[in-house]
Amino acid sequence: xxxxxxxxxxxxxxxxxxxxxxxxxxxxxxxxxxxxxxxxxxxxxxxxxxxxxxxxxxxxxxxxxxxxxxxxxxxxxxxxxxxxxxxxxxxxxxxxxxxxxxxxxxxxxxxxxxxxxxxxxxxxxxxxxxxxxxxxxxxxxxxxxxxxxxxxxxxxxxxxxxxxxxxxxxxxxxxxxxxxxxxxxxxxxxxxxxxxxxxxxxxxxxxxxxxxxxxxxxxxxxxxxxxxxxxxxxxxxxxxxxxxxxxxxxxxxxxxxxxxxxxxxxxxxxxxxxxxxxxxxxxxxxxxxxxxxxxxxxxxxxxxxxxxxxxxxxxxxxxxxxxxxxxxxxxxxxxxxxxxxxxxxxxxxxxxxxxxxx
Length: 358
Ligand code: HEC
Ligand SMILES: [Cu+2]
Hints:
alpha/beta, 4-stranded mixed β-sheet, binds heme C
């Protein structure tokens, strides 16, 4: 008895260390996942573990449920494996007798078939329930309608009821208990497949040509949320970044009011505007209230109301703007805006003009 006990001590220590390492790992993963700040204003880290709207909460709850089930399976299988490895290890190197050979067991085979099938059915039904709950949400008449169109490599946002279009930075109103506000998204693509994803707000939705997919969200906290195109769509896919600004009703109303105005016409930058309208810029960009009607690139009517340039690639500063117009590929390789071969003087003028488009 005492000899056996001594024999077992080593493996026990190993099993103990393994269990400790596993718990440590689990706590690290847990910490990383749940330590996402939920009270800061800028949600710079896309994460499904910091939900801030209806669909994101459902996805979060579903994820926890799935992690609980799969985590339990992992722990049971892992512990059995460790137990078997230790308990039935070869103790005596000279002992080459075979263990008892067992062939077939209806009971065990039934168990390891039926139990996994049941688990998969439960996971499937729960997922389906959440899918339908998100899909069947009724859109109230007061919902904010936004059509999102994916382009290589930027986002177009149309506000059909409000009568304007913008790009890359989606602004929506905060939803509170007293004033619930749902943003209803219709999503499609102008070219290849893209996927619209802001993890804190909703799950991935494919953007495909000629087929409008729907999603909604009701953000419960003001701030800026980041997302990213989640479908490989070409060279610059990785820089197809996405920002959602959730604003209080007052801030949102002020933003809308500004967006509804035509582009500012400042006589001080008339020369720059002249460059913009006489070069091909105007055949790819819209500036409402001018002769620029091009639809290939982002609407620039209120370009300076955006914090970033070319879907989050750089801060929207005059210096970056200069670099961008001189050679878009330098700022965002693979971008579909051509370098327009303007002289430095023309670039300065056009930048001066663009910076008035508040
Ligand atoms: C062939 C069409 C085309 C022409 C011509 C063109 N652009 Fe663009 N422009 C684009 C596209 C496409 C984008 C989006 C690029 C991206 O983000 O990948 C863009 C982006 C921009 C942006 C950034 C917009 C934003 O919301 O971040 C500015 C500013 C801009 N263009 C200015 C100009 C100016 C000034 C000219 C003329 C000198 C010009 N463009 C000519 C297609 C064009
Ligand atoms: Cu994309």
